[in-house]
Amino acid sequence: MGRLTWETPAFPFLNEGLPPLGPPADVGMDTITVGELLDHKAFLQHGIDNRAVGITLNINHAPTLRNLVEYTYRDQRLPRFLDPGAGFQIPREHYSNLGYAVLTAVVEKAAREDFVSFLHREVTSEVWQGRTLKSGALPGEVSYDDPHTGLTQLIPGGDQMLPMAYGGGFILENSAGAGGLVSTALAIARLGTRFAVWGRGGRSPGTSRSGDFSGTWAWAQSLANIDIAFMFNRSVESRDEKEAFVRRLIATLPLA
Predict the structure, then answer these.
(1) I need a surface site. Which of 9, 47, 104, 202 has the fewest CB within 10 A?
(2) What pLDDT, in 10s, does the model give residues 152-173?
(3) Is 182 among the domain residues?
């Protein structure tokens, strides 16, 4: 990983030694740094629309991680507030799973291995690559509860309706660094003893982080003397309802 710094421009790095991604949709793409992707300051779109990726790139297979990178570079225009002359106030950050997918590709190229292998070697062995379809679930993996359906993300232009938690909302195999991993609450709590649950750096008491995909929701928090994580195989209630429930649970713990 010595080849990278926080200031390394991400897309030029990804272009090195590989077939070019194509002309950028926005000249600002070549200035987006690794640190900006990590801190959600690249201002890329929030979610990953695999159908749009497949249709835009004219491919007839489930988009790969490289396809996500190519689509981002060739098709995404950065918001006008990044233009100094536009007169807009720049927000502090804009959360982007698409940006984290690009960052995953950066890590894989720098480490010369897939993202999960890198995590196993450098971070933790307690994460595994998730599978989009229920038939590919890992041994002992729970099922995910989401009543909604969506058009298949696996076949660009396909008209099959799939459960949102199983192919109607996302593709896990191209999103390892953007929510596509499987783990346990205990593993996430252990990570909280070493790393900030939000932002960069080491353990950071007083910070918390929540996140969800269709059919799953998780919460991690570092308190003064303990690190906590909750995972749920359900994502039906509103975010406010879920966070209020977790805070009530935490309030019952004997933390003194």
Answers:
(1) 202
(2) 999 998 999 999 999 999 999 9
(3) yes
